[in-house]
Design goal:
mainly beta, globular, 4-stranded antiparallel β-sheet, 16 strands, Immunoglobulin-like, about 250 residues, 2 helices
Length: about 250
């Protein structure tokens, strides 16, 4: 009897040991440390030459939005250039060389409709990343993205309505979006599979957490199209790159 209990106790201890090893292994897989030597890609996008004049937007047919811009009338945003020649709203993303898992941000990308404008004018998202579209205006909007590689939709959003939540399942750079109620409202959604950045008003962008390797970067701008460059990222050292478009 004692011998039987001894064998039984030994079997229980072995089972507990195996279970502990399995849990530790699982935890290690879930919380694996990021690859050593990751760096970032930083850069600028500039426009050479005289920027095209942006047309003023007449919002008089929507008084609530016109009042928001009374002190500073808005213009179209096809080409937004800062004081130093930096080109804003350019999506820069890794188009080749990325061998890691699909990048999906944990937070939804938010697009606001404020003053009868899309803010930001150009939104970049990962494939399958949640997107939340908000109406901050006192008027209704009708959001109408026009993709070619993703399903098209057209949704009304009255003032105070809940956010419209969506995802894009296919890479597409880029998707024009308009408002069927306010014809001057235009923007773009850029859906990418790899890491990306979007240039600010100074033309600056950053793509963080990039492992060492050789990559192809693609820059997209709504008026001037695409450019590509090759770049090498070394372990622990930020890589820099610059893009330049020529004004038309």
């Amino acid at each position: 009897m004692r011998q039987h209990l001894k064998y039984k106790l030994a079997a229980v201890l072995c089972a507990v040991l195996l279970l502990t090893i399995g849990v530790v292994t699982s935890v290690r897989r879930v919380h694996a440390a990021p690859p050593a030597g990751e760096s970032s890609i930083t850069g600028t996008v500039k426009l050479n030459g005289t920027p095209p004049r942006q047309r003023p937007i007449d919002m008089s047919k929507e008084p609530s939005c016109a009042a928001i811009h009374a002190s500073k009338p808005v213009t179209t945003e096809n080409v937004v250039v800062g004081p130093s020649g930096g080109l804003a709203n350019v999506v820069v993303y890794i188009s080749q060389g990325w061998s890691g898992p699909p990048v999906v941000a944990t937070q939804p990308a938010e697009v606001d409709q404020k003053g009868c404008q899309y803010i930001p004018h150009v939104s970049a998202v990962d494939v399958s990343q949640a997107m939340k579209i908000v109406n901050a205006d006192q008027t209704s909007h009708n959001i109408h993205p026009q993709p070619t590689k993703n399903p098209e939709w057209n949704k009304s959003q009255p003032p105070g309505a809940p956010p419209i939540e969506t995802k894009w399942q296919n890479e597409e750079v880029s998707i024009p979006v308009k408002c069927n109620i306010h014809p001057w409202m235009h923007g773009y959604f850029a859906v990418v599979k790899g890491p990306y950045g979007v240039s600010d008003t100074n033309g600056a962008f950053t793509i963080p957490n990039i492992p060492p390797g050789n990559y192809t970067l693609t820059a997209w701008q709504e008026t001037y199209g695409m450019q590509t460059q090759q770049i090498t990222v070394a372990a622990g050292k930020p890589a820099t790159v610059s893009f330049a478009y020529t004004a038309k």
